[in-house]
Structure to design on (117 residues):
């Protein structure tokens, strides 16, 4: 038999996990929208060399796909941990990789916007 309140806490955690999964999706879709904006819309509206924008847009597209895939994998890991009565830590490498990807793509976009002609 479980302790009182544990069942409610588990339900709340599962619902929070669902909301977090949707947040991963929202972030992924936002990155895909940025990919279209940077890679297609900006070069179409400007008289600039297209390839730097397309390359940065493709990078944001890959990042968007990664967010969606990571969200699924992470959601499954949390659910499995909950089934075992454990915690699923995020770790250090994934947030670091996302940080690096975000910094590189953001810096590349800034450089392209400033220097591309």
């Amino acid at each position: 038999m479980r302790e009182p309140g544990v069942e409610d806490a588990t339900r709340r955690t599962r619902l929070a996990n669902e909301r977090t999964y949707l947040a991963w999706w929202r972030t992924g879709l936002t990155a895909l929208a940025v990919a279209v904006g940077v890679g297609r819309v900006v070069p179409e509206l400007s008289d600039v060399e297209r390839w730097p924008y397309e390359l940065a847009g493709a990078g944001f597209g890959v990042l968007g796909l990664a967010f969606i895939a990571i969200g699924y994998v992470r959601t499954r890991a949390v659910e499995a941990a909950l089934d075992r009565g454990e915690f699923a830590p995020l770790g250090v490498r994934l947030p670091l990789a996302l940080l690096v990807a975000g910094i590189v793509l953001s810096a590349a976009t800034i450089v392209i916007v400033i220097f591309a002609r």
DSSP finds three helices and no strands in the chain.
